[in-house]
Amino acid sequence: MQEVYFFFDDSGVLHKNNKTGIFVYAGYVFESRLDLDNAKRKYKALVNEIRAALGRTDEIKAFGLSNNHKRALYNVLRNEESLSVVVNINKVYTSILSSSKSICRYKDYIMKRAIKSKIRDLIDKQILDSQQDITIRISVDEQLTSTDGIYGLKETVKEELQNGIANYDYGTFHEPLFSSNVHVDVRYCESKSNYMIQACDILANRIYTSYRDKNPNLRNIPNHKNLTFP
Length: 230
Description:
- The chain is α/β, with parallel strands linked by helices and 230 residues long.
- The chain has 5 helices and 8 strands; from the N terminus they run E-E-H-H-E-H-E-H-E-E-E-H-E.
- Helix 3 (100-124) runs parallel beside helix 4.
- The longest helix has 25 residues, at 100-124.
């Protein structure tokens, strides 16, 4: 069976008081356990070097790091498959930002859209086979969702990829990406014990900074898929 692994973290706050006006999800994608383990080993080794240089033993996050260290952590996974979602908060309906539950539902929606878009790209590149069964493993920083979010994200990703989805408002039907069985596993992780979630923090911060500082060159990332909302 095919397996694909997604990891996500965010940067910015999805709230109308966000002065930058940008919220970012970003993450890495691996098409095999071997690819994931190799990436984790490289990233962990560099984190340990930076910890030793700084005399630290805690989690290494983008906040508080020098630009040189952030750049080094980004570069070690630079050529891996990755993706991001950028939300222009000023264009989001006020009703979506009115409660924590509606914000969580919106976050699940944009994450699902990002996952579907990236998987479509991997199918187009013939990295994934749409006629073979697949397991999609999604790991997200545990702070990014409500407690009932696991079921919602898991079911909506599976439904859309395996069965397709109808948009009754517009009388349209979006075809499924797979003609086979799709299994989805969603896990919410503590970033301090998950190096790939930590790597996503560095990537998300880079993309957020590119908008905050009006430096689009920071978004020139190989093998990267970016979506913007709304």
